[in-house]
Design brief:
There is one protein chain. The chain has about 500 residues and is α+β, with helices and mostly antiparallel strands. Helix content is about 35%, strand content about 25%. The chain contains 16 helices and 18 strands. The strands form four sheets. It has an eight-stranded mixed sheet, with helices on both faces. A five-stranded mixed beta barrel has the order 1-2-3-5-4. The protein starts with 12 loop residues before the first helix and ends in a 7-residue tail after the last helix.
């Protein structure tokens, strides 16, 4: 009976209202008769002695009609209910989805308790049950109830657990999704395993985890539109951070040579299958590293996270597809791969007019004053869709990367990579720009773009420049979306990897 679920059809709004009224009346009765076997509607505690998973692990071997001799007290949500004459059956589900059958018989609990069970217990209620662990005549691991109590009365009925919840219901009512769907619970656990793995990998390499401000007087660290709020205490506008980068670099200036942060970022932009206005982000900085060493670290971080979830570097997505994250990942150059795809050399010296011609020939609409933006958009059009394996795309245009060090041997590009997995950008890494004079020049150029109406351009941050003037060692840095990491490991969309995503 462990696989049995409610057989109720989907309820109409009127039926839900009617059930709610009935359940509210039961709640009142439970409160009025708190001394009865049901014990009230919301007791402060119930005498739980073990968990449903622990009972299954210990006594799952019992043969049909066999008894354990052990009395346990467990609690769970009622997900199946069948009331007959002298023997009632229910299935209790624990938070992780593990289930066990409970049997409430006249002989074991008496007439008053059995009647209360039939009258007061509904699907969705949290119920405490105490009794001996047995196996039923059909071989179903069960608890023969001697005592029971309502642990929390559900006022609204559960959705029909036979039917798959719609995506809209899953996203807007994640608590129902967690009750009804094993995959939803697995998503939460997989995310926790992945983040714990990231922290272990950093700890093994002597990285220090810090927290930096989410409310900032000046937004920076990425090209994105910020959310703006107002501080009454300081009577000033503040920005929800779009990135922690400029503060983490201050930490490196201060001597925290290996530093990282896992926390929330906010960008006032569109939402789609790979973007959310609020998202979890990992950023890390390694003094005396560069974009090559930070790429090596990023590969290790992701491969370790995959192993933490699936036990190997080969992950299985929700649709059953296997994806291999093992081995050494490909590294290609943006300009070289674009040249190969277009069939002619594309370099940092390629005139803007030629880039516009190619874009027009392909039907790509780009309105931007920077040639580097055209190069990136053309690369996405020609090359991105052909990447199958995890791939680091190296050496970006200098004019679109204001926080990145110029390439040590190639003119017009910077030492930056983007990592593509599953066809989307998962992470980015730099050889960090640590020269305060050059950084000021880059900020000035960004300020000009902002003045011309570019809402994503960075502002000139004097406090950050002052920190750089005290000397930041050569460093490699990286950023990776935690939500996107889970997308890469599970094959799910971003709204499934975020527990409570923002929706209209």
């Amino acid at each position: 009976m462990s696989d049995a679920q409610t057989t109720e059809p989907e309820l109409t709004d009127d039926e839900i209202s009617e059930q709610k009224a009935v359940r509210l009346a039961k709640r009142e009765r439970l409160i009025d008769e708190a001394a009865t076997p049901a014990g009230g509607a919301y007791p402060v505690s119930v005498p739980v002695t073990t968990t449903i998973p622990a009972v299954r692990e210990k006594w799952g071997h019992l043969a049909a009609d066999e008894t354990s001799g052990e009395v346990v007290g467990v609690a769970g949500r009622v997900v199946f209910l069948r009331n007959t004459g002298k023997l009632c059956f229910a299935v209790l589900q624990s938070g992780d989805g593990t289930r066990i059958q409970v049997m409430v018989s006249l002989a074991a609990v008496g007439q008053e308790s059995l009647d209360s069970w039939k009258e007061l217990v509904d699907l969705g209620d949290h119920v405490f049950a105490s009794g001996e662990v047995i196996s039923s005549r059909r071989g179903e691991l069960s608890i023969m109830v001697a005592e029971w109590a309502i642990a929390a009365k559900a006022i609204l009925p559960l959705p029909n657990l036979h039917n798959e919840l719609s995506e809209e219901t899953r996203v807007r009512n994640r608590y129902l999704d967690l009750i009804a769907r094993e995959q939803a619970r697995a998503n939460v656990l997989n995310r926790a395993k992945a983040v714990a793995s990231l922290r272990r990998t950093f700890a093994e390499r002597d990285f220090v985890e810090v927290e930096t401000p989410m409310l900032q007087t000046m937004h920076g660290g990425a090209s994105a539109r910020p959310f703006v709020t107002h501080s009454n205490a300081f009577d000033t506008d503040l920005f929800l951070r779009i990135a922690p980068e400029l503060y983490l670099k201050r930490a490196v200036v201060g001597g925290i040579d290996h530093v990282f942060e896992i926390n929330r970022n906010f960008r006032n932009e569109g939402a789609d299958s790979t973007h959310s206005p609020e998202f979890a982000m990992l950023e890390a900085y390694q003094a005396y590293g560069d974009y090559n060493s930070i790429a090596d670290l990023t590969q290790t971080l992701i491969q370790n996270a995959a192993k933490a979830i699936s036990g190997s570097h080969v992950v299985t997505w929700a649709d059953g597809t296997e994806y291999d994250l093992g081995g050494e990942w490909d590294r290609i150059r943006m300009y070289d791969s674009l040249s190969d795809a277009v069939g002619e050399p594309i370099t940092p010296e390629t005139p803007m007019v030629r880039l516009r011609e190619i874009a027009a020939q392909e039907g790509i609409e780009i309105e931007h004053p920077l040639p580097g933006k055209y190069v990136e958009e053309l690369w996405e059009h020609f090359v991105k869709g052909n990447l199958v394996r995890p791939t680091f795309v190296l050496d970006f245009p200098v004019d679109t990367s204001p926080l990145v060090r110029a390439h040590r041997s190639r003119e017009g590009v910077v030492e930056k990579w983007d990592l593509y997995v599953r066809g989307f950008e998962l992470a980015t890494g730099y050889s960090e720009l640590v020269d305060p004079v050059v950084q000021r020049e880059r900020f000035v150029e960004q300020a000009k773009l902002a003045a011309a109406g570019d809402g994503e351009a960075m502002r000139l941050d004097e406090e950050f420049l002052r920190a750089l003037e005290f000397g930041m060692p050569p460093s490699g840095g990286m950023g990776m979306g935690i939500d996107r990491l889970l997308m890469a490991l599970t094959g799910l969309g971003i709204r499934e990897t975020i527990l409570f995503p923002l929706v209209k």
